[in-house]
Specification:
Blueprint lengths: L3 E6 L13 E5 L41 H8 L16 H5 L13 H5 L6 H19 L1 H10 L1 E5 L2 H10 L9 H21 L2 E7 L8 H7 L10 H24 L4 E5 L2 H9 L11 E5 L25 E3 L7 H14 L1 H4 L14 H5 L1
Parallel strand pairs: 2-3, 4-5, 6-7
Antiparallel strand pairs: 1-3, 1-4
Helix pairs in contact: 1-11, 4-5, 7-9
Protein name: GDSL esterase/lipase
Organism: Prunus yedoensis var. nudiflora
Family: Belongs to the 'GDSL' lipolytic enzyme family.
């Protein structure tokens, strides 16, 4: 799933709304809007039933039934209604200058995570970002492109795959790291990526921690001794919480290394745990199923296993998870509202957020 890591580049505080002219996205399948469609990998979501609730009911490569958090945030900020993938060869100049996603489903901060499934590691995504800057310079000119990058909102969602692929399920990294050492290893990687983005002009950053990894349906399925008694995996959730505590303490130290930066921690563990443990308490939402996905049995289906032969549930609004790994559009919108309330106001003292309820899209009408 993810670390929610937002970077906003230095903006003129006196400039009127919209504050962010573009949105730039890095990470894993939680924010891959279709880049894996153009890679030689089986980790794709460009087939039914993915996208069944996306505008036009088309599978775009998003690993969900509809929109992702970056789409909702881009709409909230009046940038665009959906964020396209950078590898799409049909991108218009407007698509580029208003922002794209560089994310790749299955990716992580650790390069070995991506190598397991043939997709782009985070380091490769930054190289694509450099190419993006060159393309934008060709459209706007170097000076205006620099202004655009400095004012753009960057979202990064990564980290969960690193633990899933390398520690819990295929424990390759456990041969050289214990869980504490691997947490520190990933956060050193994160600090290195922050430095690279800072050198490319980024200044304001909001970083969210890991989700409750042990509550992903695929993890519950793999670790449940009794299939009839599906419970979250406590030790994996505990690892995520410790990682988050370390991250919250680390960010002020990182900020002190980069003059002019503002780096804020955002907790995404809480809203997901709230949806899992207290689904009936959520305003205007009633998640009936929180331990399995909507696609097929919801126990193991994801990517190529979630297909036309594994029909979805009757009402995806009742499901927290779309497949055995990824949240549903309903869950993503709840997370977006949480981030709007808890995170966006921290980006700038003068930032005035617009309620998501005012957005004009299909999902708002349903929630």
């Amino acid at each position: 799933m993810q670390i929610w890591f937002w970077i906003t580049c230095n903006a003129n505080a006196t400039r009127p709304s919209p504050k962010f002219p573009a949105i730039l996205v890095f990470g894993d399948s939680t924010v891959d809007t279709g880049n894996n469609n153009y890679l030689k990998t089986a980790a794709k979501a460009n087939h039914f039933p993915y996208g069944k609730d996306f505008p036009g009911k088309v599978p775009t490569g998003r690993f969900s039934n509809g929109k992702l958090v970056p789409d909702f945030i881009a709409s909230l900020l009046k940038i665009k209604e959906a964020v396209p993938p950078f590898l799409d060869p049909s991108l218009s100049n407007n698509d580029l200058v208003t922002g794209v996603s560089f994310a790749s489903g299955g990716s992580g901060y650790d390069d070995t995570t991506a190598a397991a499934v043939g997709i782009m590691p985070f380091s490769k995504q930054i190289e694509l970002f450099k190419k993006y800057i060159v393309r934008v310079e060709g459209i706007l000119g170097e000076k205006e492109a620099d202004k655009l990058i400095k004012r753009a909102l960057v979202i990064i969602s990564a980290g969960t795959n690193d633990f899933g692929f390398n520690i819990y399920d295929i424990p390759t990294r456990r041969l050289e790291f214990n869980i504490t050492e691997y947490q520190d290893f990933l956060q050193k990687k994160l600090q290195m990526f922050i430095k690279e983005l800072y050198e490319l002009g980024c200044r304001k950053m909001v970083i969210a921690g890991l989700p409750p990894i042990g509550c992903l349906p695929i993890q519950i399925t793999a670790k449940s001794e009794n299939p009839k008694n599906r419970r979250c995996v406590d030790n994996e959730n505990s690892d995520a919480q410790i990682y988050n505590q370390k991250l919250a303490k680390l960010l002020p130290k990182i900020q002190s290394l980069f003059p002019g930066s503002k780096i804020v921690y955002a907790d995404v563990y809480e809203p997901l745990t709230d949806m899992i443990n207290n689904p009936q308490n959520l305003v205007s939402k009633r998640f009936v199923e929180t331990k399995r996905g909507c696609c097929g049995t919801g126990l193991v289906e994801a990517g190529p296993l979630c297909n036309a032969l594994t029909p979805p549930c009757a009402n995806d609004l009742e499901y927290l998870f779309w497949d055995s790994i990824h949240p549903s559009e309903a869950a993503y919108q709840y997370i977006s509202k949480y981030l709007e309330k808890k995170v966006l106001p921290k980006l700038d003292d003068d930032y005035q957020s617009q309620p998501l309820s005012s957005l004009s899209n299909r999902t708002d009408d349903r929630y």
